[in-house]
């Protein structure tokens, strides 16, 4: 999403201030000028209109799966830090792995108590995250045992970073700055605080396995003068491609 956003900024404006609504407490005199892309952009307008193709009307984007080292640590993060609920889980001891489906369920009392009901609700809930735990990974010494896809050397045979495809998952919150203050208090590791880099008003934190979680506002991106890490909104190093 961040790379798409950056491309949109480059196409529509030469300054970051044209993209985000400036806060009254922040000077707009200093702006970061972005180089216009010379790459021909595809016309995507046709993908935004019209009916869904026949036969796909009831398809649901139901899950993204990531492998985790320690299921307890991951469930603590997604349920206690991000506020998700464990919607369903399955244990497969014969194949030595378990799966845990978490999702931002507003009312936990709506989750059925029986397994069939949980399965049905899970398979019809958009945006679930499937946490897959392979037995024994929790005993490995390394902090991270799975490659996150973001310029990561974990798991490579030569120790060199790869240009990964997977980037992150993302959540939206009413106020990015207040949410990040809470995340900091809970001991979360930041990859980017709200004012870090050139794009203001969004953040990235890491889950226990190092996967990035983007924190975006549910409204306009309005930067605040200082964020939870003490970073000022003025300046910034610009957009960074995390795949490299």
Outline:
The chain has helices at residues 2-12, 71-81, 115-123, 176-185, and strands at 63-68, 85-92, 97-103, 128-134, 168-173, 189-192, 203-206, 212-217. It is α/β, with parallel strands linked by helices.
Oligomer: single chain
- Biggest pleated-sheet summary: 4 strands, mixed
Largest sheet, spatial ordering of strands: 1-4-3-2
Number of helices: 4
Helix content: 10-25%
Order of helices and strands: HEHEEHEEHEEE
Describe the structure.
The protein has helices at 2-12, 71-81, 115-123, 176-185, and strands at 63-68, 85-92, 97-103, 128-134, 168-173, 189-192, 203-206, 212-217. The model is unreliable at 1-32 (pLDDT under 50). The two termini are 16 Å apart. By secondary structure, it is α/β, with parallel strands linked by helices. The protein has a four-stranded mixed sheet with strand order 1-4-3-2, sandwiched between helices. Strands 5-8-7-6 form a four-stranded mixed sheet, covered by helices on one side. The chain is globular, with a radius of gyration of 20 Å. The chain is built from four helices and eight strands.
SSE blueprint:
Blueprint: H1 2-12, E1 63-68, H2 71-81, E2 85-92, E3 97-103, H3 115-123, E4 128-134, E5 168-173, H4 176-185, E6 189-192, E7 203-206, E8 212-217
Parallel strand pairs: 1-4, 5-8
Antiparallel strand pairs: 2-3, 3-4, 6-7, 7-8
């Amino acid at each position: 999403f961040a790379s798409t956003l950056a491309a949109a900024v480059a196409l529509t404006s030469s300054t970051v201030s044209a993209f985000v609504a400036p806060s009254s407490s922040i000077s707009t005199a200093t702006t970061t000028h972005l180089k216009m892309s010379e790459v021909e952009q595809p016309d995507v307008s046709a993908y935004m209109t019209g009916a869904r193709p026949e036969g796909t009307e009831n398809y649901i984007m139901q899950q993204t799966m990531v492998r985790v080292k320690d299921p307890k640590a991951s469930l603590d993060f997604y349920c206690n830090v991000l506020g998700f609920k464990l919607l369903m889980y399955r244990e497969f001891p014969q194949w030595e792995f378990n799966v845990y489906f978490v999702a931002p369920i507003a009312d936990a009392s709506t989750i059925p108590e029986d397994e069939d009901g949980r399965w049905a609700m899970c398979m019809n809930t958009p945006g679930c995250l499937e946490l897959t735990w392979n037995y024994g990974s929790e005993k490995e010494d390394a902090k991270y045992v799975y490659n996150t896809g973001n310029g990561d050397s974990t798991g490579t045979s030569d120790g060199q970073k790869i240009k990964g495809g997977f980037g992150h998952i993302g959540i939206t919150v009413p106020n990015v700055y207040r949410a990040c203050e809470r995340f900091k208090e809970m001991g979360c590791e930041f990859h980017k605080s709200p004012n870090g880099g050139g794009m203001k008003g969004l953040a990235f934190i890491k889950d226990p396995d190092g996967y990035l979680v983007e924190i975006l506002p549910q409204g306009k991106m309005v930067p605040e003068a200082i964020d939870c890490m003490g970073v000022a909104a003025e300046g910034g190093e610009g957009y960074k491609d995390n795949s490299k």
